[in-house]
Amino acid sequence: MKKIFAVTIMLVMMCSGMVYADGCKIYPGVMGVRANASQPVPWEYWGALGNPSSKSSLAMALPVVRDCNHGKLANGWVRLVDQHYNSDISVKLISTYRDGATGVIYAWQSPVQTTVGSGPQVQTKVFTALGANHYSSAYYWVVLPPSYNGKYSHVISYHVNED
Amino acid sequence: MHFIKNRIFMFSLALGSIMFFVVLVGVNMSSERNHSEGAPESSARRHKGPSMDPQELPGKHSAPAPALHRSGKIDHAMQGLAMQQDELSEKSQPLETEMADSQPQPLHIEDFQNPVDGDMLLKDQEADEDTISAQFEAQLDLFESTLSVEAPDPQWTSEAENALGNNFAQYAEAAIDSVDVECGNSLCRIDLVVAQDQNIDDVQHQLSDLIPWNGELFFSIDTSEGGGITIYAAREDHSLPKITDQAY
Prior knowledge:
By secondary structure, chain A is mainly beta. Helix content of chain A is about 10%, strand content about 40%. In chain A, the strands form 2 sheets. In chain A, strands 1, 3, 4, 6, 10 and 12 form a 6-stranded antiparallel sheet that branches. In chain A, strands 2, 5, 7, 8, 9 and 11 form a 6-stranded antiparallel sheet that branches.
């Protein structure tokens, strides 16, 4: 009986940790998916994803894994490193829903955020609430400038908090 | 809100703990029963009560058997034991029935292919989708009613309409068949029809780049053939009107 009690307590503690994490997630930049095959192949470095091309920008979707039974996207952020001297990284948050009967796509899109200046320092871009329902899918859309002097601009990680 | 959420979370955690504990105890008891069934000798003892075989009497190792048979007291004790056996047999009858009922029943493939649950799930989702569609219709109505009541801002409205018209007209040559723009003082509506040879999915991000300011956007994209795209664009530093806090 004591063993059962102890096992119960341990499992509940483990599960409570998992439940408490519900709704708030941090994803590595390496989860990014390039927009199409004509985009440069991204470069992975310690979980970050960068643009190795010296000529082309890289457009990527950063998928947001949503929790069931949540509605609104409450807030979020993206951590970026911009290493191009005069081209910025742009990023926006998008939620989409496709109507099952009519096929109409409805999408909310946040204002675009852009990096300021350049260098190895991390720039965090914060997003406020965005419309969504519990069937919506969501992602960040990020465009990385070409590399400059062999240095790549990249996405380190991103986060979304659901309400 | 966080306080209530935490309370609900703690309550759920406590309830979950209790349920999990009860289930584990149940599983443990069940496994003990199964274990007993796996040992027929001890099980028989439990169900039948004390054995009437003199060789198995509790005192058989403590006293020699011939001495027991010689004693009239022993006969009396044997009768008492026989009565106790009958009583125990009567009492154990419901327990045996209960154990028989609790034996695992054979499973059938139909148990795992319950079409009723699947249908229910689909119906729930369809009902949800109906609600969401209605919410989007209400959201579009709100955009339109906002546009219709907003007085034009002489500093912004016509300038915004011209800028949008020019940007989309340049793009129109390649990808768009027609464009119609209308602005209030906090938002604009852009209606356009994408050329038939264009992939509607490819133009999505290009379209938002044509809006000459940075603000919140809402897209309604009709994916049927010849379908149009409507974009509601909030003025910079403004938000689009929303039907509820939990906007769809």
